[in-house]
Amino acid sequence: MGLEPKNLQSSIPVPSVQELASLQLEAVPSRYIRDDMESIISTVASDNSTLRVPLIDMAKLVDSESHGTELQKLHAACKEWGIFQLINHGVADESLRNMNKQTEEFFDLPLKEKKRWAQKPGSLEGYGQAFVTSEEQKLDWNDMIFLKALPIEDRNLEIWPENPPKFRESLDRYSQDMRQIAVALTRFMAMGLEIETRELCAAYEDGLYQIRMNYYPPCPQPERVTGLTSHVDIPGFALLLDCGDTPGLQVLKDGRWIFVEPLDGAVVVDMGADHRGKWILSNGLYKAPEHRAVVSKSKERRSIVTFCYPGLSFKVGPAMELIKLGSPPLYKTVTVEEYLGCFFNPKPDVPFIDTMKI
């Protein structure tokens, strides 16, 4: 019998991990246990300097004297890693601190108060967990709140927390700051690929910006659980802010899980995938890395992730300039709206990649 279709645009309610952690359990419930985590974590090699995530300086990309060299570094980081840390990005420290503080204060609220903004049936937006589609599914060791931020008309203010009092104000400014980074980065990435920048930048100027705030509580058995299941993001890219100095984000590089060490004020840029695990506009030149989050036995961790997509009418496909260079497209070109519709409503028993082949 075929599988039932999954609707990834909604999530089944599950217990708060933060509340479970407050019970000071000696062992976590079986639904969170991942039998393969111990062997996987033992392969981490963050102490190897050749396996450290690249560091890109936005100020050097802007400066005429250093632009060429830094653009080459950016191009190499996107080709070889698909993830890098961005410094001197132009966003004021105040904006980052305020969003960090509001995230901390939100998760510190009593559970009853947080549930005022819980996910509603049929929607991913709100407080809860993402992509839980069955009662048998293994769960991640985190709680989150997911909100659509831009364009403004997409905001569902019924589930934008009014407590903490400055949450909405801080999120409004933060989302616009992340859009500023996304538009600038898109321009430089297009330069690195030697493709037209104007249309792409305009697509991100009018694009979709959705923000997920994560809370990873301490766990009595961190080697047996995952904070966030390994995955590759969908087209566009994600901008991650680590709220503190507790490491947790890992990227798979050359068969080894590498920690992305938190760097104060830096934003982690993570490329989204097309159907082949590559950034779609690059026609396979830029990577989209598999990544995950792990947790600590003694320390909590928070992060804020902004998912950046072009506008819904933008056509997702390899850049024409790259196709003309002799790299024929292997997959359909579709609008962002069509792509997201297929991704969030996959056909049963059919790999998503097969639905997009020409």
UniProtKB/TrEMBL annotation:
Query: Would you identify the family this protein belongs to, as annotated?
Result: Belongs to the iron/ascorbate-dependent oxidoreductase family.
Record-linked SUPFAM superfamilies: Clavaminate synthase-like
Q: What is the lineage of its organism?
A: Eukaryota, Viridiplantae, Streptophyta, Embryophyta, Tracheophyta
Q: Which species does the entry assign this protein to?
A: Salix viminalis
Q: Could you tell me which Pfam families the record lists for this protein? A: 2OG-FeII_Oxy, DIOX_N
PANTHER family registered for this protein in UniProt: OXOGLUTARATE/IRON-DEPENDENT DIOXYGENASE (PTHR47991)
| Keywords from the named record | Iron, Metal-binding, Oxidoreductase, Vitamin C
**What are the GO MF terms of this UniProt record?**
L-ascorbic acid binding; metal ion binding; oxidoreductase activity
Name of this protein: Fe2OG dioxygenase domain-containing protein
Q: Where is the Fe2OG dioxygenase domain?
A: 207-310
**InterPro entries for the chain:** DIOX_N, IPNS-like_FE2OG_OXY, IPNS-like_sf, Oxoglu/Fe-dep_dioxygenase_dom, Plant_2OG-oxidoreductases
